[in-house]
Amino acid sequence: MRHTTRLDRQHTALLVIDIQDRVHAVMRYRETVETNTLKLIRGCQLLHVPIFLTEQYPKGLGHTIFSIRNALQTALPLQKMSFSCCGNDELMQALQEKSVRQVALVGIETHVCVLQTALDLLAGGYQVHIARDAVSSRHELDHQTALLRLQQAGAIVTTAEAALFELLARADAAEFKEVSKLIK
Prior knowledge:
Elements: E1 12-17, H1 21-24, H2 30-46, E2 51-56, H3 58-61, H4 66-71, E3 78-80, H5 89-97, E4 102-108, H6 110-123, E5 127-136, H7 140-153, E6 156-158, H8 160-168, H9 176-183
Parallel strand pairs: 1-2, 1-4, 2-3, 4-5, 5-6
Helix pairs in contact: 2-8, 2-9, 6-7
């Protein structure tokens, strides 16, 4: 028996939202967001979970920060102007094609692009997981209010480590040792 809110690697995608140079530089928890996003990226790569990357108006906000770009060498950022990533048809089509039902979200800002994306994904029937230690806003009140609103709307607030162990599911999984090393 498995609870329906546990992440299942066969039907999950990781969405890295707008961790761009100019915005990231002014985030409240930027180091924590970067560290935990990288853990999730590397874990999802090991577990063959699809990863998508977005950039909000890169001409004005810059491109994805170097460490994340480097970790996602083959992923091309999906550019957007809408705050919600669901405004990008290419992303939505890819989620459908890959039979994604659960989307783990990381990125910035919690109260703008992360929130609006989560709300739209929920409206589209997706189960949404927010890694609270991999999202941030400039101001604590905005960040905390968004996390509360996300929970009230039905999103599942978790952590990067908890999400990775849910995706891993078993201690005897072939990837266990490699994923465990990411956590330490």
